[in-house]
């Protein structure tokens, strides 16, 4: 790590904040299986990102667990470093004080006892020596207490001790107190305003506790240098005026509930180096007076409710390295003056309502490594000058309205690892010069209007992990896809909704050893499905999507499913595939979504051993039940101060509802009873085939089932009288069922007769106005007549009418179901409706 100059003592803090902040900048970059889905994913992304703190902190927790715990997300700065500010001297060793044990004050002793007495639990016994008898020796044997040579308490240092209690107001009696560190405990209750009596207080760290109430007038403490109150989620009220803060250097209050505006009295804090107020409830505008804080190195105001414009005065901050205004409600344009912040290494203005064009002057920030402008309303072109920012490691401009072409000058960005231009209006082809960005790991150009071919130079990108080129108009032969196999680290390859043609080689997947996500959905690919799912080496594939192409022939027959241990999503729908369903599909242990619909598959289902589909036996916990299908998301953290951007890249795939869609083929035979073993199944669509036989009653075992569509087959016999109470979409119309329509239970919730009729001439029941004692014994309808009418609406004889039935109305509708995202920016979340549908 490069640590430089004045900020050396801050660098750790800096890293930490960056990673913290970015950690939750959950970057979803993957357009997945189809348009609806893509939209849903963005919404999902939104809801994760602009979310309540709860889910944020959940993410943090899980991250911490993976990366060695809380210590990582914490400034490593110690009080000892305060010497450099001319502040307290920790050199007063405890042994010195110990020998002066009798020099203690009764007032202070009482205050300490009161502190101890306001503790509910002390599981580590840290305060065991804090007893009345021991008062005379509080300077020596009381853990965490330090005194000055005259026996006055100047420090209490009790972090990470699982202490549970309140902070006694009597702490105000410790008038000589210079530092108080109670971080990483379980303190609750308010911060006592009596603390302001400790006029020599210079370091106060109460972070990561459960304190609540409002902030006392801490900024009236003349010597306060460090104030850490972060991660006290219930700490509320406004920020006090910054009355006497000339000593203040570091303020860290992230993840608190402080609200109201940022006082412009902040200008009094001329020595402020770090101001971190991210993830709070602050609103109002960004005070112009911030531009007067010339020593400021880091300014974190992300994840708040700030409104108004970005003050151009921020351009006066020559020492500023990090400017984070992301995830607010800022509007107006990006002030060109920010280009004067010559020290800037990271700029986050994402997730606001910023508009206008991107000022080319930003390219003057020659130290910039991270430029994060995604999710705004920015328009105009990507400035040619950006090619001058040769230190750039991450460039995220996605989800704006940028137009024009991708500037060739970006090819000068040899350090660039992360390039995301998704969801803009970019046109033209990918410039050949981009081949110079040999460090690229992540490229997403999806959802633009890009044309031309898939550049062959991509094959030289040996670090490439993710490539998303979907939702464009790339025209190329499938051979171009094969060239990407030279990128041996490639995990995600999204090429959906382009104009790719030609056929994939039969051993296609053998060439992609790390591939997890593969989608060519919505192209014009022809020929057979590659048969190389298994090459005798366990494959990393999780999602494979061949939907909406012109693939022909049979599904590969000879595949050993044990080599596909991770395959969860398998899509073949809307092709011209023939033959029967090969048995190996029934052996895919992790499979959760199988979509073979709208092909020409024949024969009976099934894979004898359908019961080996273990993935269908458990209903995965959906992170968000509105996500109907799989999605991909990335969690990343990074540290722009490190000599190389150390991105930790977590690949997460949304768990989706278990779905099986075999509809609109020519499958025949009975519905295999084995399906009843798939107790986690939520969606089962066998409609529009030639299935015959009865609907076995075992279907009631599918307790998680929500959608059951058996319509348009030749099923006969009676409708089983029990069905899971979770079923809310049900359809058996266009069959030859007979007998009474069951009543009671879930059936009483089905009121739409179109789920029974037309077809089924011998069904009876009140709901279809056909009393069971008058069942006609001859067929009124010829089912086949209706099957031949696509998109039908039918008038019916017999004194009743059927309503218009829309074929499979719910299947697509389901995909559109989404939940409004988090607390803000709903409109722009729905702006993602711009996705085109088939
Ligand atoms: C307080 O203690 C914690 C834990 O030891 C430490 O990480 C932190 O830096 C300390 N606070 C200050 C302001 O030094
Ligand atoms: C309590 O004091 C004794 C010396 O009297 C010392 O050895 C011990 O470590 C102290 N305990 C704590 C928790 O500080
Ligand atoms: C006790 O403190 C005084 C100053 O208050 C100092 O002069 C004296 O040397 C100390 N005693 C010992 C034993 O260190
Ligand atoms: C505060 O610190 C100053 C200078 O270090 C000292 O002179 C003064 O006595 C201290 N005040 C208290 C109440 O300890
Ligand atoms: C403190 O302890 C009490 C009782 O043991 C418990 O109910 C409470 O949740 C704890 N508080 C915190 C902040 O951990
Ligand atoms: C914050 O307050 C809410 C309700 O007042 C409570 O449910 C929650 O547990 C508190 N959180 C913490 C961390 O104390
Ligand atoms: C946060 O503060 C707002 C008022 O600004 C209040 O409505 C809300 O309940 C507080 N939340 C918590 C968790 O304390
Ligand atoms: C800021 O929030 C406070 C409550 O926390 C509210 O009273 C005030 O109107 C808000 N101000 C703006 C400008 O939204
Ligand atoms: C920045 O880029 C522009 C256009 O790409 C170029 O004309 C100019 O010389 C560059 N400036 C520097 C300082 O490199
Ligand atoms: C792209 O441009 C078209 C027409 O100019 C416009 O309708 C559309 O909203 C734009 N899309 C984006 C993402 O800006
Ligand atoms: C940057 O890219 C442009 C266009 O590709 C090129 O003309 C120029 O020479 C490059 N500049 C540097 C410093 O490499
Ligand atoms: C991009 O393509 C879409 C349709 O493919 C079209 O509606 C839109 O106008 C195009 N935008 C531009 C800027 O060309």
UniProtKB/TrEMBL annotation:
<keyword id="KW-0677">Repeat</keyword>
<dbReference type="Pfam" id="PF23598">
    <property type="entry name" value="LRR_14"/>
</dbReference>
<feature type="region of interest" description="Disordered">
    <location>
        <begin position="59"/>
        <end position="78"/>
    </location>
</feature>
<protein>
    <recommendedName>
        <fullName>Leucine-rich repeat-containing N-terminal plant-type domain-containing protein</fullName>
    </recommendedName>
</protein>
<dbReference type="Pfam" id="PF08263">
    <property type="entry name" value="LRRNT_2"/>
</dbReference>
<dbReference type="InterPro" id="IPR046959">
    <property type="entry name" value="PRK1-6/SRF4-like"/>
</dbReference>
<keyword id="KW-1133">Transmembrane helix</keyword>
<dbReference type="InterPro" id="IPR055414">
    <property type="entry name" value="LRR_R13L4/SHOC2-like"/>
</dbReference>
<keyword id="KW-0433">Leucine-rich repeat</keyword>
<feature type="transmembrane region" description="Helical">
    <location>
        <begin position="792"/>
        <end position="817"/>
    </location>
</feature>
<feature type="signal peptide">
    <location>
        <begin position="1"/>
        <end position="29"/>
    </location>
</feature>
<dbReference type="Pfam" id="PF00560">
    <property type="entry name" value="LRR_1"/>
</dbReference>
<dbReference type="InterPro" id="IPR025875">
    <property type="entry name" value="Leu-rich_rpt_4"/>
</dbReference>
<dbReference type="InterPro" id="IPR003591">
    <property type="entry name" value="Leu-rich_rpt_typical-subtyp"/>
</dbReference>
<keyword id="KW-0812">Transmembrane</keyword>
<feature type="domain" description="Disease resistance R13L4/SHOC-2-like LRR">
    <location>
        <begin position="264"/>
        <end position="547"/>
    </location>
</feature>
<dbReference type="InterPro" id="IPR001611">
    <property type="entry name" value="Leu-rich_rpt"/>
</dbReference>
<keyword id="KW-0732">Signal</keyword>
<dbReference type="Pfam" id="PF12799">
    <property type="entry name" value="LRR_4"/>
</dbReference>
<feature type="domain" description="Leucine-rich repeat-containing N-terminal plant-type">
    <location>
        <begin position="106"/>
        <end position="148"/>
    </location>
</feature>
<dbReference type="InterPro" id="IPR013210">
    <property type="entry name" value="LRR_N_plant-typ"/>
</dbReference>
<dbReference type="GO" id="GO:0016020">
    <property type="term" value="C:membrane"/>
</dbReference>
<keyword id="KW-0472">Membrane</keyword>
<dbReference type="InterPro" id="IPR032675">
    <property type="entry name" value="LRR_dom_sf"/>
</dbReference>
């Amino acid at each position: 790590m490069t640590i430089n100059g004045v900020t050396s003592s801050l660098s750790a803090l800096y890293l930490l904040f960056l990673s913290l902040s970015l950690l939750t900048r959950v970057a979803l970059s993957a357009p997945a299986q189809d348009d609806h889905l893509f939209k849903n994913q963005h919404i999902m992304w939104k809801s994760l990102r602009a979310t309540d703190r709860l889910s944020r902190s959940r993410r943090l927790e899980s991250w911490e667990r993976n990366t060695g715990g809380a210590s990582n997300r914490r400034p490593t700065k110690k009080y000892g470093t305060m010497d450099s500010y001319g502040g307290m001297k920790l050199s007063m060793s405890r042994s010195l004080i110990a020998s002066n044990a009798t020099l203690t004050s009764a007032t202070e002793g009482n205050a300490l006892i009161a502190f101890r007495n306001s503790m509910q639990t002390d599981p580590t016994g840290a305060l065991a020596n804090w007893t009345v008898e021991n008062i005379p020796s509080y300077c020596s044997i009381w853990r965490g207490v330090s005194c000055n040579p005259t026996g006055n308490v100047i420090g209490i240092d009790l972090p990470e001790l699982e202490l549970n209690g309140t902070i006694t107001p009597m702490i105000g009696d410790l008038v000589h107190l210079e530092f108080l560190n109670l971080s990483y405990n379980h303190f609750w209750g308010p911060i006592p305003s009596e603390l302001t009596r400790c006029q020599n207080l210079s370091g106060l760290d109460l972070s990561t506790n459960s304190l609540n109430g409002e902030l006392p007038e801490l900024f009236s403490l003349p010597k306060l240098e460090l104030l850490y109150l972060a991660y006290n989620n219930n700490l509320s009220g406004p920020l006090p005026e910054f009355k006497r803060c000339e000593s203040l250097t570091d303020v860290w209050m992230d993840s608190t509930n402080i609200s109201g505006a940022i006082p412009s009295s902040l200008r009094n804090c001329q020595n402020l180096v770090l101001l971190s107020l991210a993830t709070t409830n602050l609103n109002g505008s960004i005070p112009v007076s911030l531009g007067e804080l010339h020593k400021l190195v880091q300014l974190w105001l992300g994840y708040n409710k700030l409104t108004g414009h970005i003050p151009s005065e921020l351009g006066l901050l020559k020492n500023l390295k990090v400017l984070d205004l992301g995830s607010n409600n800022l509007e107006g344009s990006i002030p060109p003056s920010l280009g004067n912040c010559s020290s800037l290494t990271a700029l986050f203005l994402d997730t606001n309502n910023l508009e206008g064009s991107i000022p080319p002057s930003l390219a003057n920030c020659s130290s910039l490594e991270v430029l994060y402008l995604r999710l705004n309303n920015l328009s105009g072109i990507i400035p040619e000058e950006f090619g001058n920012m040769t230190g750039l490691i991450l460039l995220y401009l996605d989800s704006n309205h940028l137009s024009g072409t991708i500037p060739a000058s970006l090819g000068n960005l040899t350090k660039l690892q992360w390039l995301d231009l998704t969801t803009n209006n970019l046109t033209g082809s990918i410039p050949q010069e981009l081949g110079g960005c040999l460090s690229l790991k992540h490229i997403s150009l999806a959802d633009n209007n890009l044309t031309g071919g898939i550049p062959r130079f991509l094959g030289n990108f040996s670090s490439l992990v993710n490539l998303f080129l979907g939702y464009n108009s790339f025209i190329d032969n499938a051979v171009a896809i094969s060239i990407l196999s030279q990128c041996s680290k490639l995990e995600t390859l999204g090429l959906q909704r382009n104009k790719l043609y030609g056929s994939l080689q039969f051993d296609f997947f053998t060439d992609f050893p790390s591939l997890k996500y593969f989608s060519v959905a919505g192209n014009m690919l022809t020929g057979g499905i590659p048969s190389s799912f298994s090459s005798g080496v366990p494959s990393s594939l999780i999602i494979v999507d061949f939907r909406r192409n012109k693939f022909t022939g049979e599904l590969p027959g000879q595949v050993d499913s044990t080599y596909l241990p991770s395959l969860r999503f398998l899509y073949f729908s809307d092709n011209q595939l023939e033959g029967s369903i090969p048995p190996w599909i029934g052996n895919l242990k992790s499979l959760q979504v199988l979509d073979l619909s709208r092909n020409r598959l024949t024969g009976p289902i099934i894979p004898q051993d359908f019961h080996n589909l273990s993935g269908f036996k458990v209903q995965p916990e959906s992170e968000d039940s509105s996500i109907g299908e799989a999605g991909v998301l990335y969690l990343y953290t990074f540290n722009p101060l490190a000599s190389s951007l150390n991105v930790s890249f977590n690949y997460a795939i949304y768990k989706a509802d278990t779905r099986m869609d075999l509809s609109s083929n020519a499958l025949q035979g009975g519905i295999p009873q084995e399906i009843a073993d798939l107790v986690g199944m939520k969606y089962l669509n066998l409609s529009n085939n030639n299935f015959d036989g009865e609907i076995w009653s075992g279907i009631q075992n599918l307790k998680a089932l929500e959608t059951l569509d058996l319509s348009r087959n030749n099923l006969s016999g009676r409708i089983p009288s029990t069905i899971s109470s979770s079923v809310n979409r049900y359809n058996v119309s266009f069959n030859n069922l007979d007998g009474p329509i069951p009543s009671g239970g879930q059936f009483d919730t089905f009121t739409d007769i179109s789920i029974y009729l037309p077809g089924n001439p011998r069904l009876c029941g009140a709901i279809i106005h056909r009393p069971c004692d008058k069942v006609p014994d001859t067929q009124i309808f010829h089912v086949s007549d209706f099957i031949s009418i696509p998109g039908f609406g039918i008038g019916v004889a017999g004194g009743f009418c059927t309503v218009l039935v829309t074929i499979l109305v719910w299947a697509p509708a389901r995909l559109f179901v989404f939940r409004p995202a988090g607390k803000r920016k709903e409109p722009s979340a729905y702006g993602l409706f711009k996705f085109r549908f088939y």
